[in-house]
Amino acid sequence: QMAVVLAEIGGRQISLVAPPSRALVCEQCHKILFGATMLVPCGHSLCSMCAARARVCPLDQTTVSAAIPNAALAEQAAELLAVCPEADCRSQIPLGNMEEHMSSHAVPSTAPSLSKRASMTDLSSLTALLTRLDTVAQSLSARVDQLQQMDQQVRSRRIAPEQPTVPLDEQMIMPFSFSCMGTFKGHTAPVWALAFHQHYLFSAGSDQAIKVWDLTTFDCTRTLKGHRGAVHCLATDNARLFSGDAVNTIIVWRLDELTEVARLDFAQGIVGALCCIGNYLFAAGHALVKVWDTTTLSVACSVAESCHWVRCLAASPDGSVVISACHASLRFWEIPTLSSERVLRTSFGSIHSLAASNTVVACGTYNQNIHLYSLDTHEHVAVLNGHIGPIRALCFPPPYKFLFSASFDGDIKLWNLTNHLLVQTMSWHDPGSSVNVLLWMNGKLLSGGADDTVKLYKCRRLRITDEI
Question: Which of 105, 192, 345, 369 has the most CB atoms less than 10 A away?
């Protein structure tokens, strides 16, 4: 793949293995975000040099009051693969390690060549060579000891008891940043669905398997098998896990034993979305929404839509309404009556993702935008622009002042719903891999993508360290 020159280290141009995400490039100088710095109060990030000179944000002209390190973007920039500029090397090295790697080339070798060494008769030269080798061996031994200590620290943190969760209304106060805590690997195909119960995470995708992860140890404890097609959606209630696949089937699993207890026939091809609210299970697919009573597993009702996919479902946090999206229309299901007479016909394109608070419905469209509507009046409130691909997933974290969005472009974006501005862009999944699903779980964000992985993110408060 053709390398792209976007970085400079030690006065030398460094070529990246693949073009970076736009979120990792400074909007001012168009270089990689080394020393990424967030401007306050707008929340946009520039490189440290551009941020130091900025009096107003170049993106929205907001007056800059302070600048703080954006550790999340800096970590992502440091992980970009780059090509060593040395002609006889050309190794692919993470950008954050490139300076150290280049310095190893700059150290002249004082060891004699093999042919000279073979003919040595000078005892003092041999003694000096052995001394240098002994020094190198001691350095390597010390490094091994250091790595072993780091490994023990990491292992102890993995099994350490969970610290008390900071209330979200205190935690997500500007300035803050989300960073990736780790990656769950085990799937062999794209991940399409996530769900949780207590401290267990469930993930599923095109490999037809459901992985069960224990978040106290971060280990995969079980793999549930039984589907004959890609698993596109998951949902849970207090006692059961529901999984829908590409061949008409919804499997019901007991959460206490993780065993299959029933199968429901959707009878309309792919089960594209599931939503469990109260005593009802909603399922959506091509031109159909079907509702089961979860106490009896009998069909409560069904509504045939026009000849379009019903791609997504969302429930309000108070459990009073479920929203389904068919092409560009929203249908509102009242709970518990299942009345579905309220329909909102939008005019901004096919809806591919949904999320709801108690006051707002967020719709992610095929044409890359996110539209916000009042849940009560159906009034169009705002539009959020920034992705460059269809919006695959949306997620409201309590207390519903912010919104996460994920797209085919591989980025996860965090939006401030007070001023409708972008707060942060995260590009942790592999370049070119879409992010297919988002889940908010006990104060943490999870994402599943086409790179076959699930990633876990945590919010952390930032301190203002550089007044401008």
Answer: 192
Angstrom CA distances, 340 to 116, 271, 282, stand at 88, 20, 13
Name the token pair of 35: 């020393």
Take residue 94 and report the two structure tokens written for it: 């993470």
Distances (CA, A) of 418 to 70, 209, 225, 397, 421: 21, 40, 44, 14, 8
CA distance 401 to 414: 11
Among 22, 16, 4, 1, which residue's Cα sits nearest to residue 410? 22
Question: Is cis: bond before 336, omega within 30 of 0?
Answer: yes
Q: Which residues pair with 318 in a beta bridge?
A: none
Q: Is the dihedral of CA 256, 257, 261, 267 positive or negative?
A: positive
Block means of pLDDT (10 residues each) for the chain, 468 residues, are 54 80 82 78 82 85 81 78 82 82 63 45 67 76 72 52 45 74 94 95 97 92 95 96 95 95 90 95 94 95 88 95 95 95 93 95 95 95 93 94 94 94 92 94 94 92 51
The predicted model scores a pTM of 0.66
